[in-house]
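Same chain as my last thread, 400 residues:
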Amino acid sequence: MTGPEHLNVDVAVFGGGVAGLWLLAKLRKLGFNAVLLEADALGAGQTLYAQGIIHGGIKYALTGKLSDSSKAVAQMPGLWRECLQGKGEIDLSTVQILSPYQYLGSTKSLTSKMAGFFASKVMTSRTTEVNGNERPQVFQHTDFYGQVYRLQEAIIDTASLVRALAEPHIQAIFKFNWRQTTFDLNDRERIHLSVDQDDRKIAAKILVLTAGKGNADILSRLARKAPPMQLRPLRQVIMRGNLPDMLYAHCMGASVNPRITITGHRDAQGDIVWYLGGQLAEDGVNRSVSGQIEHAKKEIAELLPWLDLSGVQWAVLDIDRAEAKQPGGKRPEGVYTDYHDRVITGWPTKMVLAPKLAEDIVALLKKHNVLPSGANSLPNWPHPDYAVLPWQQESKWSTL
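reply #2:
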């Protein structure tokens, strides 16, 4: 290929969420001539709908033993912490840390207290019981009779994470609509990509699909049915107005699963927003929008009954988690990668596992003899915009 609108690369990465952006940064650091292609906006979809918790596996250990899920993420907080300090494999020192800790608050239910106790014994170095004014303001109320643990799990602003990953490599990130892309696999050396009604063409030694739900669309355009994908939907809730303070906590009930996981953010006007996940969001897909909001009100009233909820505005955020298909639709225990005929498909399962996904993909490249060819000049093609956090879009607040 020659010409100003033609580009030869080692690797073309599809998908501008955390998974794709982390991989691009790692590949370019290793000397690969790699580019990232995004059809919409950077961070759109799962990334900016994430609560931003750098999970360390604690919520998967509440039964008193380490599950495969908790083992998969146990090392992630340390790796992320180094990167957030500018000392890791990727410099994330510009990322906004919303809170250095996530808290776990239990009710006076014995089962809930025991879940917290077992979690603290299993992961002693990552949990500390806190009392008095060390607790978040909400849990300092005289009507709170439970326990509070501080977890070594930071919460970050996902919009600033996307920018921190993208900005150093923006010249290699292009707006490229794969929904209108023709893939030519006849050349055994490179896969050729061209966009309908567009003179831009790319030839890549290998394609890497990290586009979340978009992976299925791209595989379909490649006339492939594997690897199969599953979607596990969530119906999250946001609330704003008359909130006392930011809160970052798993609120426990009688189950070992958090009834609600709350993270604090700010809307476009700078007002406090609580973003509600946990079991509320898992089960919420079986409720109507209005039913989910009513259930969220009931849960908050039961877990934090001293809060004045008058004047609070509520809305629902629906998001699909895209993952490799599992028997019975269960959550995968860790990252997933698949290689077939010069195409790697990957899902990190959780945002915190993006570094692990990148590591596994680099290993696959090495295994299949795709080696770095060094930097190459890049065309001046359009770059995608940055997506806006959903709770900073006023349209999202008009749920009802």
